[in-house]
Amino acid sequence: MKPIMMPLRTVLPRALAVAALCLAAAGNAAAAADPAVKFPSKPMRIVVPFPAGGYSDALARLIATDMSNAFGQPVVVENRPGAGGNIGADVVAKSPPDGHTLVMGTIGTQVVNPLIYRNIPYNATKDFSPVAFVADAETVLVVNPKVPATTLTQVVALAKTRPNELTFASGGTGTTSQLAGELFQSTAGVSMTHVPYKGNVPALSDLVGGQVAMSFATLAPALPFIKGGQLVPIATLGKTRAQALPNTPTLAEAGLPGVEVRNWTGMLAPAGTPLPIREKLAMQVDRTMQSPTVKTMLEAQELTYTRMGPDAFDGFIRAESIKWKKVVDQANIRAE
Q1: Mean pLDDT lowest for which of 16-30, 189-203, 222-236?
Q2: CATH number of the 139-236 domain
Q3: Which of 6, 58, 105, 335 has the fewest C-beta atoms under 10 angstroms from its C-beta?
Q4: What is the pLDDT of residues 236-284, one digit of tens each?
Q5: Max Cα separation, the chain?
Q6: Residues 6+ apart with CB under 8 A from 83
Q7: Range 119-143 average pLDDT
Q8: Confidence (pLDDT) at 35
Q9: What is the DSSP code string of 75-106?
């Protein structure tokens, strides 16, 4: 019995139709397997757990604008200040894990606050999924000109001859300016007196006025006083020298390694947010941070961007937690 032979003009369209159905099915399966394909599917929000005006807020707004243009969905920035950032962070921790609600977390909300607050409404380790590192602010050790020390060696020698007499100002309990001071003391083997203020502005004001001797200050607000001769820069606390202070050494260069401080902010999502979605968000953050406009803004505010996606940022936060837990426990830092 001879096999039935169908004309090519009949077989080919059927074969193409079957192939098209297979491709469509494969495409649907891929889309179902990768939730980032249809993300975002609705308006997004980025929660900044601090008042408007800070560098986390400014960067969040730049990122939100670029995300909205790239994704075709509105992206709003919502300021939810209070309790050192805990209120805003908690809002995101309890949001659906779909990538549509994000937080600009910081060293405070993700590392320090869980160590110093007795009652905190979220678990910084379990309630968030890291997305991307965004930026960190330069920190500088500055002294009032009346202090008889212009180098790190002289500052350490003065602190050793006058235990607890030298005062250092901070922007408040648990801030990076206090943490830096505590780490400095333990590493240098000196004892100084911490004077907390309600913010960096009053701390710098009293430092310039001579009410306190020194501060481990954020560089951007301290820079005008340094340029005006009202404060003396001793050393910066980063890995490399600050662009604005090329003649000022890092603490490591000046002879005190191990006192590196990063006053950082980064983007996080609620725990359980799928990795493909977080990777898509991280790629967009990187595009924004690498843009000429943002690079200019970073330079003007003495901020540094380091590219870190979800996995790298997660590892960074874990390392920071280990580092600062030792400092917090040793200094017995507790929020009021």
Answers
A1: 16-30
A2: 3.40.190.10
A3: 6
A4: 999 999 999 999 999 999 999 999 999 999 999 999 999 999 999 999 9
A5: 111
A6: 117
A7: 96
A8: 84
A9: EEEEE---GGGHHHHHHHHTS-SSSSEEEEEE
Report the range of poorest mean pLDDT among 34-38, 101-105, 112-116, 241-245: 34-38
User: Which one-letter amino acid corresponds to residue 96?
Assistant: P
> Looking at the domain 44-136+262-331, which fold is it?
D-Maltodextrin-Binding Protein; domain 2 (3.40.190)
Contact between residue 170 and residue 216 where contact means Cβ atoms under 8 Å apart: yes
Q: How far apart are CA 311 and CA 334, in angstroms?
A: 30
**Residue environment code for 201-225, b if the CB has 16+ CB neighbours within 10 A, otherwise e:** eebbebbbeeebbbbbbbbbbbbeb
Which residues have a Cβ under 8 Å from the Cβ of 143 and sit 6 or more positions away?
Answer: 149, 155, 213, 214, 231, 232, 234
- State percent of the chain over pLDDT 70: 90
Parallel, antiparallel or unpaired: strands 44-48 and 167-170: unpaired
Mean pLDDT, the chain, rounded, equals 92
- Cβ distance 306 to 312 under 8 Å? no
Q: Confirm whether 44-136+262-331 and 139-236 share one CATH topology.
A: yes
Question: Tokens representing 89?
Answer: 């962070």
Q: Are strands 101-106 and 44-48 parallel, antiparallel or unpaired?
A: parallel
Domain ranges of the chain: 44-136+262-331, 139-236
| DSSP bridge partners of 77 | 46
Structure token pair of residue 326? 């030792």
Q: What is the pLDDT of residue 171?
A: 93
Angle of the 275-289 helix axis to the 292-300 helix axis, nearest 10: 70
Whole-model pTM? Answer: 0.86
Q: What is d(CA 41, CA 302) in angstroms, rounded to the nearest whole number?
A: 36
Q: Of all helices (H) and strands (E), which one includes residue 62?
A: helix 55-71
Rounded CA separation 298/215 (Å): 23
